[in-house]
Design goal:
It is built from 8 helices and 10 strands. It has 248 residues and is an alpha/beta fold. The protein starts with a strand and ends in an 11-residue tail after the last helix.
Length: 248
């Protein structure tokens, strides 16, 4: 579904992506791991066309992203942002239905509200949450609203940016389970970026590790622990000693 070939991206003298090659199979859940500043978020922004590459090709379903009709292209994606990123002046249901109230996916308000409430129920929130403001919700509830928004338009591809950051272990487990269930139900292709190895093991079919601007290792989750790559081993076990230097 997504293929990156020799992708390079720098910001001034800061080379972030230095020849990324990555293949995300259709209908699978790919989790991208790596330390802070390794380019995980830039990789997602590159796929969405939010940054311009210095070199390389990104294809989604065989189509070069730079040649795609932007509205039709972006309509294929859903995204759960780090920190939920809800609009604090809009009630919950309008946050969930944001894309359904405007643009090429526009629906009548009554229909959009009905879809929003259905998606809220899918992520374990009652209908009475729909008219609250985000500030009235806990962090875990806000994250679930963000997940409901990500799936409201039935996207083919969903990006999850650090989905469990800031959550307690129990709520993180709830979010991981929801992501796994929803991706499977929808048959969607998913790409998650995370530092949380519990999330990796809960939601990944495939894992890719970014280091120094390149994909250091990629393979099925079942092979992750068995790899002898010292970079992967240091990262997944959180060891201070190893080839990855700690940023001080």
């Amino acid at each position: 579904m997504i293929r990156l070939t020799d992708v390079h991206k720098s910001f001034g003298s800061n080379q972030v992506l230095r020849g990324v090659n990555l293949h995300v199979p259709m209908g699978q859940s790919m989790v991208v791991i790596g330390g802070s500043g390794t380019g995980k978020s830039v990789l997602i922004k590159s796929v969405l066309g939010l940054v311009t590459l210095n070199r390389g090709i990104i294809e989604v379903d065989g189509q070069d992203v730079t040649r795609a009709d932007r509205d039709a292209f972006l309509a294929r994606f859903g995204m759960l942002f780090q920190g939920a990123a809800l609009f604090d002046s809009l009630p919950v249901w309008q946050n969930v239905a944001f894309r359904l109230l405007r643009g090429t996916l526009k629906r009548p308000w009554s229909e959009a509200r009905e879809i929003a409430i259905d998606k809220l129920r899918r992520v374990g929130l009652d209908a009475d949450v729909a008219d609250r403001l985000p500030a009235e919700l806990s962090g875990g509830m806000q994250k679930r609203v963000g997940l409901a928004r990500a799936i409201a338009a039935q996207p083919e591809i969903i990006f999850f940016d650090e989905p469990t950051t800031g959550l307690d272990p129990i709520m993180a487990g709830v979010i991981n389970d929801l992501i796994r269930e929803i991706v499977t139900e929808m048959g969607a292709t998913a790409v998650t970026i995370t530092h949380d190895m519990t999330s990796v093991r809960a939601i990944a079919d495939q894992v890719a590790m970014l280091h120094a601007g390149k994909v250091r290792w990629c393979g099925p989750i079942s092979d992750l622990d068995a790899t002898d790559d010292p970079y992967v081993q240091q990262f997944i076990h959180g060891r201070a000693e190893g080839p990855i230097a700690a940023v001080r």
